[in-house]
Amino acid sequence: MKRYSLSLILLLASTLLLAACSTLPPPGIQPVSGFELTRYSGQWHEIARLDNRFERGLSQVSATYSLNADGSIKVVNRGYDQASASWKEAQGRALFNGDSHVASLKVSFFGPFYGGYHVVALDPDYQWAMVAGNDRDYLWILARDKQLPQTVTQQLLRQAASLGFDTASLIWVKQSTASQ
């Protein structure tokens, strides 16, 4: 009986762990369809984000996406850490959760552990994007340029709020070029 109980506990724990590592979009959030990776590839500047431990304190944050030979996506995140006066860089790998024309991906920077990456708003000319994680604690506003027109920013804030994100907690990323 003890063996059965231990097996059941391990199965339940594994299920809970996998559920916690979901790479699906949060409930009620639909990733962009008609997505074109070739147009999305290249460098994006982080305009705003919800605070997260792996970017805490970084400014001049950018993300660069390119196609790997195996069909996965190379992700290079880079930001300047004022406290250490140095650049921090993380390289990762992204895979589509399904259809490559739906902007729902999973990204890993740490081995087999993946997080959700879901483009929920995208400029028709691929000049700005809004990206959600696998829950409403992760949100990024990205742009090809280091700043966005105020009208676009306000539009994205309204959309993010309507999707249930805490827009009052967004961190507006400094994109000065003084330390580059």
Automatic annotation (TrEMBL):
Signal peptide segment: 1-19
Report the InterPro entries cross-referenced here: Calycin, Lipocalin_ApoD, Lipocalin_bac, Lipocalin_Blc-like_dom, Lipocalin_CS, Lipocln_cytosolic_FA-bd_dom
Citing just one GO molecular function, the answer is:
lipid binding
BP terms from Gene Ontology: response to stress
Lipidation feature positions (N-palmitoyl cysteine)? C21
Recorded hits in PROSITE patterns, A to Z, give: LIPOCALIN, PROKAR_LIPOPROTEIN
Chief subcellular location equals membrane
Domain called Lipocalin/cytosolic fatty-acid binding: residue spans: 36-175
The subcellular location is: Cell outer membrane
Lipidation, S-diacylglycerol cysteine type: C21
Q: How does it sit in the membrane?
A: Lipid-anchor
Record keywords, A-Z: Cell outer membrane, Lipid-binding, Lipoprotein, Membrane, Palmitate, Signal
One Pfam family of this protein, by short name?
Answer: Lipocalin_2
Could you name the Gene Ontology cellular component terms for this entry?
cell outer membrane
Q: Which domain of life is it from?
A: Bacteria
User: Assembly and partners?
Assistant: Homodimer.
Q: What does this protein do?
A: Involved in the storage or transport of lipids necessary for membrane maintenance under stressful conditions. Displays a binding preference for lysophospholipids.
PANTHER family per record:
APOLIPOPROTEIN D
What family is it from? Belongs to the calycin superfamily. Lipocalin family.
Quote the protein name from its UniProt record.
Outer membrane lipoprotein Blc
Q: To which species is this protein native?
A: Aquitalea magnusonii
